[in-house]
Amino acid sequence: MNENAEKTLLVDGKVVLPHRSLAVVNHSPDGFNWGYGGSGPAQTTLAILLECTSEIEALSYYQDYKREVIASIPQEQSVLSITSKEVEQWLSSKREDKRREGKEIL
Known about the structure:
Shape: globular
Radius of gyration: 13 Å
Order of helices and strands: EEHHHEH
């Protein structure tokens, strides 16, 4: 049995399935995962950001979000619940960093 198949991702209490994120970048056809820096967490992170921001911004930031947030969530946790407010707070910080560096993403 694939351990990813047992993972449930919620954004603002709504179940998120991997289909939309897989159509953008196919990191993990087996589904979502977290707790490390691999392909399952990359798919999870892309799906979260696609729910909360534009595709361009999601693609620009999802690897950072994976490293800074998703990789530290306990892998044995079967349900991951994130709010768009939490994501927006993280994104706001990253947008400000980019503005300071002169690398703003449109």
